[in-house]
Design brief:
This protein is of the alpha+beta class. The chain has helices at 3-8, 13-27, 101-116, and strands at residues 34-38, 43-48, 52-60, 63-68, 83-85, 88-93.
């Protein structure tokens, strides 16, 4: 079993479904993102060649969380983010599909645009 699969299956069935859904959503963004499993963090992290670390999918009991690294700096996503703190923003997903899907992808794209800008 790969590190990514171990991370995805470490929680309960609901967390796994939500984490897989978030993983697929991030991958569908059309961005050049490299998936990097981080077993010690229990996350799947996504890196962009110009923007660096963009976001991570964290399966937790009963839900999965997408953490956008500089999400606190993104304007216009109050309808998407469940929490903001420091520089990050968190999106909690308990059931899938989540109606915020398109807006979540928009937030990931906005993060890359913010970080990759010269």
């Amino acid at each position: 079993m790969s590190d990514a699969e171990r991370i995805l299956t470490r929680g309960d069935a609901g967390a796994e479904r939500a984490a897989r859904w978030l993983r697929d959503l991030v991958r569908s963004s059309g961005l050049d993102l490299d998936e990097r499993p981080r077993p010690r963090w229990g996350s799947l992290n996504y890196h962009h060649p110009a923007a660096g670390y963009v976001c991570g999918v964290f399966p937790r009991d009963g839900h999965a969380m997408l953490v956008i690294e500089h999400g606190a700096a993104l304007e216009g996503f109050d309808d998407v983010f469940d929490e903001r703190g420091g520089q990050i923003a968190k999106i909690l997903v308990e059931s899938v599909p989540d109606p915020r899907a398109a807006r979540i992808v928009d937030a990931v794209i906005a993060e890359v645009a913010l970080r990759a800008a010269p």
